[in-house]
Structures are given as structure tokens and as C-alpha cells.
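Model it.
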Amino acid sequence: MDEKFIQRPEFFNNSLSSVFGVTEVPLTLWEKIYSFGFIRKTFILFLLATIWEIYARYLDNPLLFPTFTSTIVAFGDAIVFGGLLEKVFYSIKILLIGYLSGLVIATLLTVAAITTQIGNDFLETLTSMFNPLPAIALLPLALIWFGLGNGSIIFVLIHAVLWPVALNMHSGFLSVSPTLRMVGNNYGLSNFGFVTKILIPAGFPSILAGLKIGWAFAWRTLIAAELVFGVSSGSGGLGWFIYENKNLLEIPNVFAGLFTVILIGLAVENVIFKSIEAKTIRKWGMQN
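Modeled.
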């Protein structure tokens, strides 16, 4: 039976936009500026600096609380004439040695914990014992064991880094889904391959959080240790710079040293860790 099919003419309803409104609205200049995190954070820093300046001028006591502008002047003078950069490089060198050593030990302990039961019990026992113990509390023992020098500082830095990194790494490994674990088992991966190809990528958000916490603990432990005994072989780090200027009542220089500590912390967090985050967990779709 022959049938004739009549094609229905296309129909466009242009009245929808008048009912529901425009679906796409161009961003205003303020919205475009506000979308940049760097600009938002810069505004916050500018606001804090303004509050600092106003409060210091209201207090009008440079010995107690110098202004932000005088701190910036002292910061520039310390860089040019006070050897501040040399002290910063000295501190960072010691920090990297202790930080990387702590990461290596934390990785070995965590791999042992995730692959063997005795390793898991060993890590749980050690973290329960030593994680609540402040690193700076070990300073007197470090002085006895390693003497007055870099060895004592590196020892307390390793203690500050080791336990938070190990805990976060172990937590990240345990949070890996059973499906991914079965994939690794089906491929017949060795223990080392299972850790590097399955556990580390899948648990990297927790690992990165541990790296951040370990960095923060190590940085403040280093400054505190240098405040106590930062001089070794005639040289000292950033903490010793703060301590020396405190004794000389050069309070703007003390604030300049603290300002340097803050700048380094901001740089590490917003440049190094943000870059790692963007190239790993954000790229992999594990974080918005």
C-alpha cells in the first residue's frame, strides 16, 4: 500500500527568549576582574597592609609596632646592606635537606605499612607515639646528640615533616577504591608497581595535603630552631636574623624578617604547590 509522506515544515519559535529572558549575559568588567584569584588575594593583602599601617600610626610606638611602610624600608635595607638574602638561602638550604629527608623516610614507612601487616602496625605505633610530640621539644636532645650545628636542625626538621606526611600518605593509600586495587591486581603488578601506578596517583590529593602540612611544620620549626641556636660556623639563617635584631632593638628589621617568612610561605603555597595541584589532581579531574 502506497502512502504519501508529507514533510512537516520547520517551525522556529522566537518568542521563547522574551518569555525566559536572555540565556547568555556577558560578564561585566568587575566580574571579569573578580574571576582572577590572584587579583582577589592581592586585594586581601592590600587590605591587611592598610589595616596594619593605620593601626601602627594610631598606636604611634615604633618600638612596639612599626608601620608597614617602615617595615618595607627596613626590608629593602636588609636585602641591600643587611645580608638578608644570604640568610634566606642558608635557611632554605637547611630546610630542603630536612624536608626531603623526611619525605623519603615517610614514603618508605608508608609503603611498608601498605604492603605488610607488620609495617602497618609499626607505622601506627610510631605515629601514635611521636606525632603529638612537638619537634621543637626534641631540640635539647638534638643538641646533645648532634651538637650545635646543622645536624641538630635537620633532625628536628625530619621529625616535623615525617609524621604528618606519613599519616596523610597512608590515609590516601587506604582511600583508594577496591576497583582500582583489583585493576592493579589483574595486571599482575609488583608491590612497587602497584604503589607507583595505582596507589600514588589515586591517593595524590591526600598526599599533596600531607606535603603542604609537612612544609608548614618544617618551615616554622626551622625558624623556631634558628631563633634558639641559628648560628653555625659564623653564619646564621632567617630565624637568627630576627633574633639578632630583637637583641639590638631594631624592631623594623624584626618585622622585616617576619615579613620575609610570610612572603616565602605565600610563594611556596601559591606558586609551587598550586602548580603541582594544577598539573595533577585538577588536570585529572579529582578537584574542582
